[in-house]
Amino acid sequence: MAEKTDAPTSSSTDAGSGPRVTDGASAPKAIIKNVDMSEEMQQESVDIASAALEKYNIEKDIAAQIKKEFDRRHGPTWHVVVGKNFGSYVTHEPEKKRIALLGSFPASWALVRPDGTETREIEYTSERQRAIIRIEKTAFAPELAELFFHSEQPTIVSSVKLIQSTDIYSWLAGWLLSSSEEQQQQGDVKIDIICPATDDHIRKYSPQKYTLVRETPELYASVVRPYIESLPPARTRWVTKILSGEAEQKAVLFSSPEFILLPDMKWDRHTIGSLYLVAIARDPTLRSLRDLRLEHVSLLKSIRKEAYRVVQEKWGLPTGSLRMWIHYQPSYYHFHIHIANASYEGPGFGMVVGQAHLLEDVISLLETAATSGIDIFERMTLTYGLGEQHGLYQAMIEAQGSLD
After folding, report:
1. Active-site entry in 92, 150, 336, 338
2. 72-86 mean pLDDT
3. Residue finishing a domain among 154, 174, 197
4. What is the reported pTM?
């Protein structure tokens, strides 16, 4: 349920630092809880937040200037890690847990560019449950980023719509103030929320340095495989819920006894040029590239075939229009294949050397090595980039000294 906050007297800034709040009200806070809320509580939250939002009188010229700047610039996604104290507008779907949608953020946050060129961090300690919010747009202006997350000024995100959610992942479309008519259907920004955010989630999205490491079959057996086996089932519960039919069934594009195909959370589901799908194998014993054997070639070829069939039927994309790859190390240890429009060359899809292995190459390696009776991915030394926040980092770095 939304909470009223103490209203400051009046605050204002000049045009260079953001919009002015001419009314004395401050942005209300909405708190995510791990319980469903009743329809009465839901409506009360919406009514309180809506009433507070109506009090804001944002100068139109400043809002238009912000929007123009966003449309003019082209930059990378900003990753935001905050304490769970955000939102000025709460909505709910009967079959889903409570979701707090984006309104305003507290002043304590960490804002980083994925390429590491700029970092703004404030140490934040809170007893509230943590959340990770990712907001994506092709034209984020660094000097305007604070206006998304300011606690004492109105947010420039005017409304949001829940696209989909699982037990910890939520995907939303957001609309900025002064949106053009053409943008009304698609939304100005794409918002991803992970809540509750574990330490592993936060490490993943924290700024970090990467080091190239070599993983021999012996290191896999002594370091990597024990690490994978030590991970609790809860880490991939959201995957098993999809596979079991408990979540995201409306989004599934293809399902068979061997795998399912559905949109990846990184795709906005509108822009075909950045189309991004994911195929998830049903076999729980398949965890990563290391587990692939000749017997899995039929699965890999079936995924390739069905992916092309689906994109041809739904979006008219021909053979050769898709780039398919497998990450190693993957972000989660349940075997999956990334599928994207081959024309997309932007950031955020993890297509870098040392991480992505093209599906076509993987199939060829499996088939070629089989003629010699070799399980190639069991015998190969794999080289990849490992971030210092990864759970394997320390052990793998220490082990590098023992390699030739």
Report:
1. 336
2. 38
3. 197
4. 0.63
